[in-house]
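Data deposition worksheet. Section B asks for the primary sequence of the deposited chain exactly as it was used as input, without tags or linkers unless they were present during the calculation. Section C holds the resulting structure in token form. Section D is free text for depositor observations; keep each observation to a single sentence. Incomplete worksheets are returned to the depositor.
Section A, Depositor: J.P.
Section B:
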Amino acid sequence: MIVQRGSDFLDANGNITLDNDINIEVLEYQLKLVDEGLAVPTPGGNHHAEEYYGYMAQGNSASVLMPIWYMNRFTEYMPDLKGKIAIRPLPSWGAGGKRSAGMGGTGTVVTLQAKNKELTKDFLAYVKLSEEGNIKIWTEFGFDPPRWDVWDSPEVKEPNQFSDYFGEGIFDMLLEIREEINSPNTSELTPNASDLVKTSVLFRALEEKSATPEQALKDAANELRNR
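Section C:
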């Protein structure tokens, strides 16, 4: 939500912006949704918990904001919702606002212990960057390929378990919003910032309600600055 609005945990130079005005406004908005009964803190503490899968599968929630790769959580853990879930862009924060945000969650590396580093790097480059490799990312794993130029290829539009579950037009929707997918800034502080938001900020502000959104964010930002 904050990336949609052009904000972030960190700025482009790695400076901590976790407690800026936009982030406070967004967390206050989330708290309002909870207080008004329009949203609930995720059962089980995250969207990969058995408690959440059961909650969602029983029809207790109308929607969830998650990335495209989350499709396989539905097909694997919530099969009874087949045909009842559609994938759509996020609501924008205003006219002309961004309807998506993107962040890679997988770090792919070649370790120093590799026996043939150059060959391994070449293989990873092929798997992650080539046209054929990107098509396989979808057909084999169900992840949205990072290369936009395969999103309209015939291979990704062929019927599969995901189109059977969610309906057709998944990549048509992605192509529609591809210019609206901002990415967050990343640095060596990103993991710590993310952990603080997940383990402290959201819990204190939305679940426990022991701190205001502003105070929860300022406390986390100060802790991050002092590490």
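Section D:
The mean pLDDT is 94.
The CA atoms of residues 19 and 218 lie 5 Å apart.
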